[in-house]
Amino acid sequence: ADTVFVHFGEDTHQDHRNLASAVISAARFIPNVLFYEGPSTRAFHPTVFVDITKTFPGVVANDHVSLDVRAGEVHALLGENGAGKTTLMNILYGIYQPDAGEILIDGRAAHIRSPRDAIAHGIGMVPQHFLLVRRHTVAENIALGLRETGFLFPLRRVEHRIREFGERYGLTVDPRAPVWQLSVSEQQRAEILKALLRGAEILVLDEPTSVLTPQEATQLFAVLTRMKAEGHAVIFISSSSAINWTRSWRWRTV
After folding, report:
1. Do residues 139 and 159 lie in contact, with contact meaning Cβ atoms separated by under 8 Å?
2. 42-86 confidence digits (pLDDT tens)
3. Rounded CA gap, 210 and 201, in Å?
């Protein structure tokens, strides 16, 4: 049914960026060694927001919002700037905590208190302003975010997985390229690959077309179609009414 999104509507501290840079720099002295974890093999569990409410001083960002997220669908979440779209997704990703309401995953209340908890539940998020370490390569950025599995793998293994997922989803990017040399579109692909390699089954994209050319936006829609076909759930946040939305997406204007 074409019902759904009910009305409502990352930022990393500089110290964390510096720490990330230092860790990767130190890893250079251990040739070809970094921790690697492959994507999740968990089954997708339906996710439901129930009466989510979030307020800030003088502002009600989310007022009893309820919606469901299903596998194999792209959910377009539309609304004006300041409507509370990103706030709701920040709650899903553990950046904010709701004042009321709950998130149900597979019918059970999920306590998502941090992005680490969100990732453990198979949730990934690509923020509007990317969080890549610019002086390091795509592979180094992605490897830094992968959890330890108990075994050491060569960095080239991470590069191989980036190429594999890039070909699979149409997210071509050179894993050895420094981030500062990449176009904005390529940086976005790297962020999406980072989420997928962490095992994201639900992927939140915050205003993804705002930084893309029309041709790049068309390419992104092709990527989302592939992800949809493989059973991923995508939540596409946008304040633009000019996008040519596909009829196969579930959407509602806020």
Report:
1. yes
2. 455 567 888 899 999 999 999 999 888 888 889 888 888 888 999
3. 23
For residue range 151-162, what is the model confidence (pLDDT) as tens digits?
555 578 888 899
| Whole-number Å distance between alpha carbons of 183 and 21 | 21
Tell me which amino acid residue 105 is.
Answer: I
Cut 0.85: pTM above it: no
The sign of the CA dihedral 129, 133, 135, 140 is negative
Structure tokens at 86: 């990103």
Q: Report, as an integer, the average pLDDT of 22-40.
A: 37
Other beta carbons less than 10 A from residue 48's beta carbon:
16
Per-residue DSSP letter, 211:
G
Q: How far apart are CA 184 and CA 164, in angstroms?
A: 21
Cα-flanking dihedrals φ and ψ of residue 11, to 5°? -135, 140
Query: If you ran DSSP here, which 8-state letter would residue 42 be given?
Result: P
Tokens of 137: 């390569």
**3-class state of residue 153 by DSSP:** strand
Mean of the per-residue pLDDT values of the chain: 79
Neighbours of 254 (CB within 10 A): 16
* pLDDT 10s digits, 194-227: 999 999 999 999 999 988 999 999 999 999 999 9
How far is 52 from 160, CA to CA, in rounded Å? 40
Q: Alpha-carbon distance 69 to 116, whole Å? A: 20
